[in-house]
Amino acid sequence: MSDSTTTSRRGADNSAAPRPGAAAATVQPRSGLYDPELAAHIAEHIGEGEEVPALSFEDLPDLPEDRFGDRELSWLAFNERVLELAEDENQPLLERVRYLAIFASNLDEFFMVRVAGLKRRIATGLAVTAASGMTPRETLESISSRTHVLMARHARAFSGGIRGALDAEGINLVRWEELSTQEQDRLHKFFRKQIFPVLTPLAVDPAHPFPYISGLSLNLSVLVLNPATGKEHFARVKVPGLLPRFIAVDAKGRPSAPTTQSKKGPTSFVPLEDIISHHLDHLFPGMEVVEHHTFRVTRNEDVEVEEDDAENLLKAMEKELLRRRFGPPVRLELAEGISPRIRQLLVRELGVVEDEVYTLPAPLDLTGLNLIADLDRSDLHYQRFVPTTHRFLAEVESASPTDIFAAIRERDILLHHPYDSFSTSVQTFLEQAAADPAVLAIKQTLYRTSGDSPIVDALIDAADAGKQVLALVEIKARFDEQNNISWARKLEQAGVHVVYGIVGLKTHCKLSLVVRQEPDGLRRYCHVGTGNYNPKTARQYTDLGLLTCDPDVGQDLTRLFNQLSGYAPQSRFHRLLVAPRSVRSGLVERIDREAAAARAGNPSWIKIKVNSVVDEAIIDALYRASQVGVPIDLVIRGICAVRPGVPGLSETIRVRSILGRFLEHSRIFAFANSSGPAFGEGPTSGPEVFIGSADLMHRNLDRRVETLVRLSDESQINDLIELIDVSMADSTSSWHLRSDGTWTRHHLDANGDPLSDIQHDLISRQRRRLSLGR
């Protein structure tokens, strides 16, 4: 793929908004979710294009009722693909360990949010049938059946394969009984000094009710006998979450907290709960320990805030976070060997049903394997990769810092992270803006950012320098709420204007706008991305970003920020599609355009890369386009409700999924036909390509502010088309979605040799550029 550049600027007539009279499918509100008041509120604040008539498909066969895959089961299939990477012996060993931890962490969140949501719908009587045709109860039953199988397979992958491979490398995950007498003696001392003071045993009797079990905490159920009375008592001991999940014991038997630094000789790692369970006599002196077992509870931890009733969204969110800790249980994990009476007690006291109980071999909670995956063993990790400065930014590097504004004035710059460095591009863009006396204002969205964010620091520096700084902080980013609240307060205290977007909508778009005074007047510099302004995840996620000073994009971002922060009137955008008003309709219009071209005998195609596709209106438009012969390629990392390859419905649709070293996170939307895009006064022929923050899900298209920006440079457009084509190629390692909803992995050729890894190939390309001086 060639590097991207543009030297031309296109005028305001080059609009991304739908044209009057252009074709677009009618989008109906989903049953039970449509709120007329919210719709009116959105219409008032997020202005977009005009209503357009639907393209007629009356002569085509009716779409079958069973045309959608189930959202929840598709997500479980995605997590199964993660598990397949953990099971793959061709992956570096410690990366396989990390995939085990990722699988476990993913499943935790799935239960806390998706399963909890299904249970809530059933409990409140909102048991609306899903687009897949399944009721919430049927979906829960299918989830329970599938997750029992997957969790057992996950445990086997650890105990039956990966644990033995770690042993062979001198990384021994051992139980207490496997330690030598000397190692146990030293752990006795370690327990008394480092662990015992933190523990709090909680008894259960008429004077001590069953204790609250916090979500995702690891616990010991303990049955003790009082020799004086002959009575048995139940107690619970919480395994402290602030202590390391595993305790390292070096070759000389010395225990310590795990460290990423390499040590000489083999090292053993003992689960913390094993150490505690073999010292219960310290916690219950004078009592006999009859039995003990580990268990873990997952609770409903989804956040709900009635924004219309909340005068201060920040305070309302803090209150809701406190409430979240006490959500009802949705899963109970028990270690194998637990006695029937203790099992019955836990099930009764926690209020779970049998389908929510998962009995697994110890150790429970394999999210703790991240400690092992972090070990400094370069021979057991992916080869080290350091992102490089984008070539158009590197061209202006010298002994002095890069003048990033000069580079952007030369041309639009399309960034592809993590291959292109985030720190020398987006981060530098904001840091230079904060320090540049010519910069008058900075406007920035923040959805998720890191704990030591240089982005936040740059905004604070800019405010300290007297610039006008607006930060649109989305405090409702799931499981990052507390983090975002702290940054919102920090920014407010520094004098940054902090706003929280529009009531009823999450602000998910990734936008940065810098206003700079230059000799010929004010110039607006923009960044529109697919990923968060988070330096840490920018090294782990594949994302795209456009740096530009194009006047149309600058005007679009100015209008959008004004709508998000104040009461600006509705407006149309030149190169943006903005949800919730026009992303769905704009994409459906373009899908229908390619279908119309195909029906007229003109070759056309559609290529889309997103994290998930669930939206029925989008999928139906794709089906209609497929019915008239439009080739459609979809690269979907996660959830996919499309059923490809169904005769008479989706024969021209292909779906691939790529998982690997980096989390595929970029979103690309490409459309083409031989008669040209016919939008504005662009080229008479050639594809139309957008990048942006939106996935094809109801939440993105209806309940979030999302942006897609249309690219204008031919080489950038060709780069992204090639990226999708390579992702779809039979020579590229990927998973293929079949018409029955199952995924099959294609990672070996006919000779059993590995297929091409697209992420590895992009790393290699970056290294070649570096060695050639870019």
From TrEMBL:
Residue numbers spanned by region Disordered: 1-29
Tree of life domain: Bacteria
Domain annotation Polyphosphate kinase N-terminal: ranges: 69-174
Reaction(s) catalysed by this chain's protein: [phosphate](n) + ATP = [phosphate](n+1) + ADP
CDD domains, per database record: PLDc_PaPPK1_C1_like (cd09165), PLDc_PaPPK1_C2_like (cd09168)
A GO molecular-function descriptor: ATP binding
GO cellular component, one term: polyphosphate kinase complex
Segments traversing the membrane: none
Modifications made to the protein after synthesis: An intermediate of this reaction is the autophosphorylated ppk in which a phosphate is covalently linked to a histidine residue through a N-P bond.
EC number per UniProt: 2.7.4.1
Domain Polyphosphate kinase middle: residue ranges: 183-369
Record's compositionally biased regions (Low complexity): 16-25
Active site positions, chain numbering: 508 (phosphohistidine intermediate)
Sorted UniProt keywords: ATP-binding, Kinase, Magnesium, Metal-binding, Nucleotide-binding, Phosphoprotein, Transferase
Required co-factors: Mg(2+)
Domain Polyphosphate kinase C-terminal, chain residue ranges per copy: 403-568, 576-748
GO biological process: polyphosphate biosynthetic process
Annotated Mg(2+) binding sites: 448, 478
Record-listed ATP binding positions: 106, 541, 637, 665
Function: Catalyzes the reversible transfer of the terminal phosphate of ATP to form a long-chain polyphosphate (polyP).
Family named by the database record: Belongs to the polyphosphate kinase 1 (PPK1) family.
This protein's name: Polyphosphate kinase
Organism this protein belongs to: Sanguibacter gelidistatuariae
Chain's gene name: ppk
